[in-house]
Specification:
By secondary structure, the chain is α+β, with helices and mostly antiparallel strands. The protein is built from four helices and four strands; from the N terminus they run βαββαααβ.
C-alpha cells in the first residue's frame, strides 16, 4: 500500500536558503527508495507558516523507513539541525478537485 506524506518545514531565522539547499539534497535520495516528490511549495515563512511544504509518495511504509534511515541523510544531521527549526509529517490521501 503506497503512502503519501505531507511534510511541513520551518526554517531557523536567517536559514531559509540553508533549508532549501538541504532539502534539495536529501530529496534527491527519495527515488532511490522507490518514492517520488509529487510537489514542493514555498510560503514566505511569516506568521508561523512553514517555509516549505512537500508532498512525497512512497510505495510502502518500509520504503519510507529506508529513506529516513538512509546513511547519507544521517551524515547531514548537523546541517539539517542548523537550517530546520521544526518538521511535521502528516500521512495524507490525495483527492481530486471533486473530492
Amino acid at each position: 500500500m503506497s503512502l503519501t506524506l505531507c511534510v511541513l518545514l520551518w526554517a531557523h531565522p536567517e536559514a531559509e536558503d540553508a533549508l532549501i539547499a538541504h532539502e534539495d539534497e536529501v530529496l534527491g535520495f527519495v527515488t532511490e527508495h522507490g518514492g517520488r516528490v509529487v510537489q514542493r511549495a514555498r510560503s514566505a515563512g511569516f506568521g508561523g507558516d512553514p517555509l516549505e511544504i512537500q508532498l512525497l509518495e512512497f510505495p510502502s511504509a518500509a520504503a519510507v523507513d529506508a529513506y529516513m534511515a538512509d546513511g547519507r541523510r544521517a551524515m547531514l544531521t548537523d546541517e539539517r539541525d542548523r537550517a530546520i527549526a521544526r518538521t511535521e509529517v502528516i500521512t495524507v490521501e490525495l483527492v481530486g478537485p471533486g473530492g
